[in-house]
Structures are given as structure tokens and as C-alpha cells.
Amino acid sequence: MRCPFCGNIDTQVKDSRPAEDHVSIRRRRFCPACGGRFTTYERVQLRDLVVIKSNGKREDFDRDKLERSIRISMQKRPIEPDRIDQMISGIVRRLESMGETDIPSNRIGEIVMEALARIDTVAYVRFASVYKNFQAADDFEDFVHELRPPTAPGEE
Ligand SMILES: [Zn+2]
User: Fold this and answer.
1) How do residues 85-94 score in pLDDT, each as one tens digit?
2) Which of 75, 109, 135, 155 has the highest CB neighbour number within 10 Å of its CB?
3) Contacts by residues 70-74 (CB-CB < 8 Å, ≥ 24 positions apart)
4) CA 10 to ligand 1 center in whole angstroms
């Protein structure tokens, strides 16, 4: 695994342990070149999912992107990080078990909203209000961008 700080590819695993009720393995990694420490998660991927946008474009499903948008909608909400991880894993499992490899982007939005509605009303409303604009634009990138709080210019 390449070091995200210096690009060195020879990093070491310091610790491995199950996370999220044993649906993933959390690995603490160490880069001997720069001393950087980072964490990776290993998960079962049942199948490769493809997102179909309303304009017909296809792109590989990106769990990290989904996770970013969900975490932003849950900012400053009193929700355990483990609970959020579990929810995201549940959403991905649902997508993977839909029987289709190609999934319309609006279907993903609906599933996320259903999951959020069960966990936190405020996060649900935040996500849903952006999702309405999202359906007009129907571009996941725009969607994630809109969810980003306007308070952090230049911060990525
Ligand atoms: Zn490094």
C-alpha cells in the first residue's frame, strides 16, 4: 500500500483487527520512509457496481464518495462513527444484492435517504434538501460538492 504522504510503496502493517462487527479489517500502517501513519480498511466486495447517471454516463461505484456525502450530512450530529460505518456498509450490501450490476444514481440516493431517515432526522433533511437539487443536476460530483459546508474554503 502506497504511503499517502510521501508515495513510498514499501509500508508496513503495524496492527490488524476486525471493525464494524467483523465486516471489515482495519489495518494500521506505518511508512518507514517518512514516519507517516495511516489506516486502511479491507472489505469483501461482492461485485463491481456501476452507477448510471440520468444522462446515461456510467462510472464505477465509489464507496468513498458515498461515504463523504453521508458523513457531511451527519456533521456535528450525535451519532457514533461506528454506527455510520455500519449504515454505509448496509447501504453497499443492499446495492450489491440488488441483482443488477448497473444501478441508477437516483436509486442510490433513495436508498441513502431511507437509511438516514432511520438514524437521524436532521441528517436526513440535510441530505434530502440537497438531493432535490441533485436530481435536477443529477451529477454525483455536484451533489457531494453541494453538501460540503461553505465554511472551509481551500480545505479538502
Ligand atoms: Zn511515507
Assistant:
1) 889 989 988 8
2) 109
3) 70/112, 70/116, 70/123, 70/127, 72/144, 72/147, 72/148, 72/149, 73/116, 73/123, 73/124, 73/126, 73/127, 73/130, 73/147, 74/116, 74/120, 74/123
4) 9
